[in-house]
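Recall the central idea of this unit: under ordinary conditions, the amino acid sequence of a chain determines the structure it adopts. In this exercise we apply that idea directly, starting from the sequence alone.
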Amino acid sequence: MVKTARDIIGIMRLATGRMDSSDPLFTDEIMLGYVNDYYTLEMGQELRLKEKRTWWEFVYGPTELNPLPVDLQNPFGAPPTTQFTTIGPFCTADGFEVFWYEDPAQFYAIWPETQPYQPQRPTYVLYYNNTLTWRGPPDRDYAMKINAYQVEVPMLLDDPIQNDYLWRYIAYGAARDLLNDYREFDVVQQNAPAFNDYRSKVYARTYQQQQNQRSTPRF
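Accordingly, the structure predicted from this sequence is:
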């Protein structure tokens, strides 16, 4: 049976004791706010789900800025509503690997800032201070791909849960946040075994997916 955000809220009410949806402090909309805060902001920090790993794809050419500003909440060239929590380090230009740096000292030791460079296919990139600095500067348009971790889109009350195996884990995570806000730490402790159990099951599923792929060297 497909689960929705209402199902998450139902478990959350049981876990917190907030059963009265007419209470102005704990309406379905307020409970949904806790659910979405946990779902979109916190869950990605606790677990890295395999299915949320994706590509940031865009066309980059000589008319674009270099350094290119990076806004993970509104990525350059990405479809509307796309957001990322992290990007890199794997990057390609027209299918050719671009060497990724996050240490300016290492990058500028190879590519000094004061030196002009012949436009070419980008072969190196520095990700630093929310910008991507490319070397060399592109001589034409290139299809860029950078691996990324995509942010979940907030749910509406009757939205089906995209990954329904997450629903109890999300419910107990959101319940924990609500209880912490109201300083009900004793109930947080009572709920901890259930939360840890559901989180472990989600982690085990993702870990098993990773184990099914044998690592191969990149050389």
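The radius of gyration is 22 Å.
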